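Practice problem: UDP-N-acetylenolpyruvoylglucosamine reductase
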Amino acid sequence: MLEELDAPLAPLTTLRLGGPARRLVTAHTDDEVVAAVRAADTAGEPLLVLGGGSNLVIGDAGFPGTVLRIATTGFALDGTVLELAAGEVWADAVARAVGAGLAGIEFLAGIPGSAGATPVQNVGAYGQEVAQTITEVVAYDRRADEVVTLSNAECAFSYRHSRFKADPERYVVLRVRFGLEDAAGLSTPVRYAEVAKHFGVVQDERVDLRAAHGAVLGLRAGKGMVLDPADHDTWSAGSFFTNPVLGPEQYAAFLALAAERELTAPAYPAPDGHTKTSAAWLIDRAGFGRGYGSGPATLSTKHTLALTNRGAATTEDLLALAREIRDGVRTAFGVELVNEPVMVGVSL
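Answer key — structure tokens:
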């Protein structure tokens, strides 16, 4: 276990923003993770768990406690069961699973971050989310002071949400287990229209597994969503806002405002009679196009959902842009955008 004081955090995030940690501990085993968490809890010290740093917005003042960087490794296949240590690089793990001929996470290719973060956010893209394949999550329960194994149902997954996100101070993910599928070299059924169009198939058809993985990498790269240190469009936290899920009354009010502008908004059925619409569509139609902004933080030139650091931004620069966009969408369409990345020491 490695310990550093007054350690820079910006280089450990994909936004490359944020002040230093009072103390940075890097853990390479599950036992080290648990020991570090116990020590911080016993001392009553604030704790921030850091994986790949792809879903964090850290304040310019930094973090006044212990930052635990999880650097555990472990990729184990038993038939179609995949177990990943929390510190495994997610994009690499997806590529290895596809290389082994297993389907179930191929449309989640190229997403930055660590495996341990995927159940927290119920990571999803291109019609797939980890809730569809996660069977168990092994975590340290800080409240009970013990390692527990939670089933898929106990994780309480929903759109970009989970039990871990709902109670962020309780669990630290150690390992994630997936039930994948050997579909004779084919992908899981294509659920996303853009992918179906790419392959010239209808939705729910299967395509070549490796081709599906490669296609998603290409689509993500075209939107600046695959990390490239030389490309400031990738200096982001990915999609900054979640797609709004509206109740019947909210949705009716939104449709009326859209109709006043003679606009037809995207709509997707959601549970409990709700309707999901597109945050990217809202941002663009509210007047914030690709590349919007003249300061050191702007929208990506490739995708309106990504707020980017052009190289010299501060966290406050980024948040000022985020607030401008959130307020503009609310004024135009009466819809409140919610940030997807976790805020540390700051808020919108």
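Discussion: The radius of gyration is 20 Å. Students who identified this feature from the tokens alone can consider the problem solved.
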